[in-house]
Amino acid sequence: MDDFLVALENEKPLLTEKLKDILRQEHDQVIFKFADWLTNFSKVDLKHKTGLVDPHANQSMLLQTQSITSTMRKRSLPTSFDARANWAACSEIIGRIHNQGVCGSCWAFGALSAVDSRLCIATEGIFSGPKAQISRGYATSCTYRWRDGCEGGWPSDVLRFMASTGSPTGGDQGCAPYFGHGAGKQHFSQSEVAPPCPTECMNPGFSRKLQDDRFMVGSDHFLNIQLLNNPQRTLAYQLAREAILSGGPIPALLYADNGFMAYSSGIYTHSCDIDPNHAVTAIGWGRDSWICLNSWGDTWGEGGSFRVGLCVLTHAVIPTMSLAGSSSGYHFPLAGSAETPAGNLNPASTYPDLQPFLEALSSKARTLEGCLCSDACGRKAGEPDRRDWCFVKDPVCQGSNWGFCRYVTSATTETITTTATTVANVTTTGAMTITSPSVFPSTPAWSLISGDCKTDELGCIMSPGYRGASMYESNQQCEFEVLNSSYQMEVLDFQVEADNWDYLLVDDARYSGKKTPHGKMPTKTIQWYSDYSVVSFGWKICPKSVPAPAPSQLSQSEGTKSLGVPLVHKGVCWAVLSLLALF
């Protein structure tokens, strides 16, 4: 009975006629548009359009934010600032509007809009154009390998992921296009599942391999600053403005309430005392407001952007170092381009205006080092056994405060010798030639023998009507013959009604909902069935060649690795007193 009552509460409309009248009265300087799709918009629907989940929920950012802002120097800043106007060569990148669809991936969009912008600024406009965007789909699928990225996340985790692993380009013309479906104002009753982390570029119009398109950026130097309930809020606002002025847009958080759904224009001041549920990108400010980008498409708000009162942003992610203009971690030129940043362009450096805060932070951290992860490592339910960090609560280390423990692998237990390759970043002027990747079969791996399913030029197979916001229909069937059983199934998208009501039959196994055939090697047939009700966006699966087995031993010239010795991890406890990750 309790579950039924909770479900009933979650399905209540958020915008009743009475609430609409209240919004109009209390915010007479703001324009709202109560579109038809908002009529039955519920709490569940709101969750699908936001997606902020703090994986570090036991932490508080407030204490360290106070220690930073209390050391700030008060200096004069512009009354208003818009990054789009300040960096004209990157105006299109900075102001570009994206659409997360019905996947709860705002955390990836909010972070990567900032990364795109800062990369354009650092490269002096070379990272620009329609192919200059880091893949939102790749980040959503790959940042949290142990769970579905459409269930929510945290922007800081994307920044760490971009520094440690990196991502290929995205968008319609990039290596890994976004998998999301639905416009920002449509299909709110649908929720998506992020596909498995892709291993190859699957855009038919793209001509390079994923590893040759990956961008690894030094985005793991940042502070998470809490603005909500901060006793020195004015100074915290100044720190956020300093960060935008120094290097470009920053990820930010807010609470998206009922009225935010219907926002059209003006400065909307709301929910200044509620924890966040949505991630956005702050690109500037006015006298009493922030200028931000949302990820609900360009038909929402002020062409996809919006303005809110200063108190609306609850948190901000402050980069402490600039991105480098050239790096061996960048794969320039972009596909189809010939421009590459000159060597040593704009080396990464600490922002001088933030230096006093960093010094105060590192001084405090040094006094709290010393506890071992092995002594006090508490993992959360659902997390894998091994990660490179964990939260600890150790009185020796930090009294009653939570600490941050980062694993360090002992250098004496694993030895790897490799031949280094030097990558030089130079300016090029000639045309670029790219060899098309050979991961796809020269002859079809699977052939359609009946039904309305589809195939494309790469040999990928799709459910009937698969495209954008289109859905498959009820009572559909189709069948593929397996022509070559040596190819794995690379699942690019899989939005299918769960519990085998609709399902894909691969050999003798059924797949539906969150269970996908990713990595399976069909040997018999592939069949699709949909029942008489409930439809979704469908699926797209491509054939992937299976890599040759690795040699049992590496020659000395290729590299050596000591085997059979277990890795020993040591831990160092760092004072974050929250999520203020300075590493």
UniProtKB/TrEMBL annotation:
Biological processes, Gene Ontology terms: proteolysis
Classification via PROSITE patterns: THIOL_PROTEASE_CYS
Keywords linked to the UniProt accession: Zymogen
One Pfam family of this chain: Peptidase_C1
Positions in coiled-coil regions: none
Gene Ontology terms for molecular function: cysteine-type peptidase activity
Domain Peptidase C1A papain C-terminal: 77-320
Family designation: Belongs to the peptidase C1 family.
Protein name listed in UniProt: CP-1 protein
The organism of origin for this protein: Symbiodinium pilosum
